[in-house]
Amino acid sequence: MDAARSVSTEDTRVTIREINNSGPFSTLADDVRKGFSRSPKQLPPKYFYDDRGSRLFERICSAPEYYPTRTENALLEQKSASIIAHVKPSSILELGSGSSRKTTHLLNACDQQQCYSKYLPFDVCGDIMVSAGKHLTCRYDWLEVEAHVGDYCRDLPALPGDDGPRLVAFLGGTIGNFGEDEALAFLRGIHAIMRDEDRLLIGADRAKDTEVLHAAYNDAQGYTAAFNLNILEVINRELGAQFNLDLFEHHAFFNEPASRIEMHLRSKSDQMVYIRDLDMHVSFKRGETVLTEISRKFAPGALTHVLDQAGFVIERHFEPGNNYYSLILARPKSGTAARYQASPDRLAV
Asked: Does the pLDDT value for residue 316 go beyond 50?
């Protein structure tokens, strides 16, 4: 059963709602025990995003090598006006909102068109959403922000409904962090909370030259490496583990057969780590890795297929001239709707 509680903020136009789901979902302790008992070892990437991890990710997005944010941002800047004019949303629900930097393009379009939508960011870090909400309400005097703290992979059914059209935004190429079956199940979960007049705006990274991909996940500033290692700091803090971060290193590469980037933490030595709250000893051999994240890179046909399987019809497909990225606007299929393949809207980015 889902439960939620509202938390007050200093700004009356910024509210925060914590979603507490008592259902049979895994905790950090569950996932660490399970992940470190597997061979090869792995951890879910959702635990990257504590306060420090969220801020590190913002730095990654600013790195010159990290093209996805820059490319998606340019597409949103150029196409938000037509998206808002088409959807006319009464609310914008953003899954994995972070600092809401990308959202300003949609809100600028709302402001220009006097389409005064409510903004509903949904993420795991409440502090960042409140900070972003205060910034946005200063910028837009009409805006109300209702932030939701929770796990969007499990808590979507607990979100409140809306009287008008809702634009659900899932940006940043995050759909690539799911395996094939997981992505389909997640998109079906989004579909389940949408009505006919709602729309999904989704960003997805595309397959491209391996050198470009490698540089994006191995930035010279070391932000991605610090972000990856931070998951061990989370386990140290939350579960009383004794990881020495100096004994692990970031390792990211493109797995071409699977068309995905894989991020790993690689042990620099043979070592044993004790996790107090689990009363668990975990052994690592030198060179052994822990898979912490995948980032799938899509061909256009693969995107169309998974959206179709999840019950969506593509209405508009925006992409840059170099085909690095896809920004797709889709609607739920009705029972009699014919399958629709949008022609790409190419932009010079």
From this structure: yes
